[in-house]
Amino acid sequence: MHKSTIFIFVLLGSSLVMLAIVPFFNLNNVATVTRAPPLPEGPIIKDSSLKVEVIFEGLTSPTSIAFVGPNDILVLEKDKGTVQRIVNDKILAEPLLEVNVANDANRGMLGIAVSKGEEEINSTNIFLYFTEAPLDKFPIGNRVYKYELVNNKLVNPQVLLNLPAIPGPSHNGGATIIGPDNNVYTIIGDVGGHRNQAQNQESGGEPDGTSGILRITKNGIPVANSPLGDRVPLNLYYSYGLRNSFGIDFDPLTGKLWDTENGDDFGDEINLVEPGFNSGWSKVQGTWTLDEEEGMTEAAPLNPENGLVDFGGKGKYSSPEFTWRESLGPSAIKFLNSDRLGKQYENDIFVGDIANGNLYHFDVNKDRTELILEEPLADKLADSDDENEGIIFGKGFGAITDIEVGPDGYLYIVGFQGTIFRIVPNQA
Fold it and tell me: How far apart are CA 117 and CA 425, in angstroms?
């Protein structure tokens, strides 16, 4: 056994499964993306028929929001480990939940999803992803919990997943969503340097719950007919080969999953994630093959075969639907399943970033398989800031951590500096 082997326990329903992992402590590839400050005069939308409203300000490092009803928002505060509730634009006096989290770098209170209970019409289940830690702040796991929302408190916690949180502190992922199949999807990166088959290292051992989009039932059981295998933890994986991500969403028309992925200092991505999708990390990033010591080396073929793990042909690599050459930290991705901002934006994709505070807009083709991109982006690659201009929808939000569509059909944007914005028509 490797001297630095660490044991991680995964709770799946009533079964506790032990996983052995060997941490990889190379931090040479951990990029630091500067968080953009918001514009003093407020965000700017290019479409003059739309405007930005401030819904709430004064939060502490918010990462994600979820609606439990009209004008009723749950907000995660990354560093404090709190879940706040904002009703009719006013925050409750006490948080619904406060837990101890490790909060350095990408750790903290990270992801939330809301599901109305199937058995009792008035029950609401809240799924949280956070980096749990005792009082000394040393992480004991990136955990997915299920809670019940009762009388403005989150109660009856159940651990659904206990995932690696070391070495870290980067690449913990955290975005969590309920899929159209009524299952829970959550995303995790390589947690600061794990290197096994989930990172396309054939000799590194079996996957350990890192670098993938994981899928479980609402009770923490692996979903039947997993695309990659039937043994824990491989049967948790919906996709793999992912460096890190802060954004996943389902196309409301097709039910297909899309994500954003963060490169090192190059090669940020937007991907269409089919079951068994291999995003290529740590052998491919963006449109380049990768050497972890030297960085990008050459243009990657559209379907690279050598050096990628495919789990007996079950996993399949496909190139990104869009790539940024220079890293800007893409974060949330959201389909606007509403025509409240105009029919021209209905079911289109919106993406935020951390480094510039930009909100990007993408049209999707008729088959919903590719983005509609015009020159100079027809090659699916933004080579420079100048090339980004054609897809920038809004600027000045500060570091965007989440994008959601409210029950009112409008687009809500979360700025890490503490503000929730809403985009509405000018006449609204």
Answer: 34
Q: Which CATH class is domain 48-425?
A: mainly beta
Q: Are 308 and 324 in contact (CB under 8 A)?
A: no
List phi, psi (to 5°) of 162. -120, 105
For residues 283 and 242, give the distance between their C-alpha atoms in angstroms, rounded to a whole number.
Answer: 11
> φ, ψ for residue 281 (rounded to 5)?
-65, 135
pTM here is: 0.91
Q: Could you tell me which of 220, 215, 328 has the C-alpha nearest to residue 276?
A: 215
Q: Are 334 and 404 in contact (CB under 8 A)?
A: yes
CA distance 187 to 175: 6
Report residues of the chain scoring pLDDT below 70. Answer: 1-33, 117-122, 292-306, 428
| CB burial of residue 393 (10 Å; 0-12, 13-18, 19+) | buried
Largest distance between two CA atoms of the chain? 66
DSSP letter (8 states) at residue 220: S
Amino acid at 53: E
Cβ(226)–Cβ(285) under 8 Å? no
* Four-residue CA torsion sign, 268, 270, 64, 46: positive
Secondary element (H or E) of residue 385: helix 385-388
The torsion of the CA quartet 82, 52, 381, 176, rounded to 10 degrees, works out to 30
Question: What does the chain come to in residues?
Answer: 428
383-402 confidence digits (pLDDT tens) = 988 999 999 999 999 999 99
CB atoms within 10 A of CB 134: 10
89-140 pLDDT tens trace: 999 999 999 999 999 999 999 999 999 765 545 689 999 999 999 877 789 9
CA–CA distance, 233 with 207 (Å, rounded to integer): 7
Q: Which pair of structure tokens corresponds to residue 40? A: 């003093």
Using alpha carbons, select from 368, 387, 363, 385 the residue that is nearest to residue 377. Answer: 387
Contacts with 143 (C-beta within 8 Å, 6 or more apart), sequence order? 129, 130, 131, 132, 159, 161, 162, 163
Task: State how far the Cα of 396 lies from the Cα of 101, in Å rounded to an integer.
Answer: 30
Q: By three-state DSSP, how is residue 426 classified?
A: coil
